Amino acid sequence: MTFDRREFAGAVADVGVLVPIAVALIVSNGLSATAVLLPAGLLYLAAAFLYGLPIPVQPLKAFGAIAIAKGLGSDEIAAGALLMGVVFVTLGRLRLLDLVAKAFPKALIRGVQLTVGLLFLKIAWGLVLEPPKSFSAHALDPALAASIAAVGVVAALALRRYPVSLALVGAGAVVMIWRGAGDAALGPSAIALPSLDWATIATAFTVLVLPQLPLSFANSCLATADAARVYFGDRAAAVRPGRLATSFGSANLLAGAIGGMPVCHGAGGLTAHYAFGARTGAAPLTMGIALLTLAVGFGAGLAALLTAFPLPILAALLATAGLLHIGLLRDLRGLHSWALALAVGLVGYQVHLALALAGGLAVYWGFRAVGALVTLRPRTT
Prior knowledge:
Layout: H1 5-11, H2 15-27, H3 33-51, E1 58-59, H4 61-70, H5 74-93, H6 96-101, H7 106-129, H8 142-158, H9 164-180, H10 198-232, H11 241-258, E2 263-264, H12 267-275, H13 282-297, H14 302-306, H15 311-326, H16 335-350, H17 353-376
Antiparallel strand pairs: 1-2
Helix pairs in contact: 1-9, 1-12, 1-13, 2-4, 2-15, 3-11, 3-13, 4-10, 5-10, 5-11, 7-10, 7-15, 7-16, 8-15, 10-11, 10-12, 12-15, 16-17
């Protein structure tokens, strides 16, 4: 591992996804701040030693968004985390995902990455124009917030060779402490074991787990493994879909057991870490230590503290990661590959990723089958 300013800059580059969802789950859904950050911190530590690369840790985005929008309680969220854990640990340990991954062509994976990039841009746009209620006490005028975010994106793209993300997050941390220091408190927040019954489990499965499954399969497993190969070549040999499923699935078993935040890996997060300088396991190790320190040392007052972090900075980091992630499409060759990637990406963004995956697979393998039949058809003279 290498500990230098570029690794530290890359380490903090993905907080644009983590902070808003974590804060909303703490403030709006009543989750313990310590329980929210503990699984994420431990998974970052595990990723540092399992992969030796800047493999990211993010909240389950569809899962979290639905839980926040519907105001679900900690028991439903815990049940959903446990179900996600069981599903992905099982698939990972049986290596089923490694077999299934072979059926997905590169163009389809690029389409998934396009969907994720567009979702990052959408979330970033929402952070500045329609700030989450949890951040309303410190919200800026939308025009001013958008201007600050735009400057942040330009700076982040133009100065990526320098630790610009570290400077942005550092500035945001100073503002956060200045705004929320009066509400800070030392020590962890209380952790309560969930109370589960069949009705709670059924609600979690239908409302939270089913919409999240295709996104986790496609983005957390397939697209993350693919992005790791693009960025790190042979160094990413251990970053297999099945292994990724096992690692984040195991973290979700812990999250469910303590009523915490469900987590995953993510190709967009990998792009964020990589683009801003992370190249080794030092970046996830740094993030893991930071999150565990916050969870255990400041969990009691973390809800008030995190809501004081400037949203335009989070939006700038998130939008930059989204744009760079979309840039993965540049290695596609041929009209057919571009058409498939764009179709999958736009359908996944506008409609549903599961539908985009199913349609993309049907089109790709349908054309392959027709091509094989044409090739095998005997010629007549």
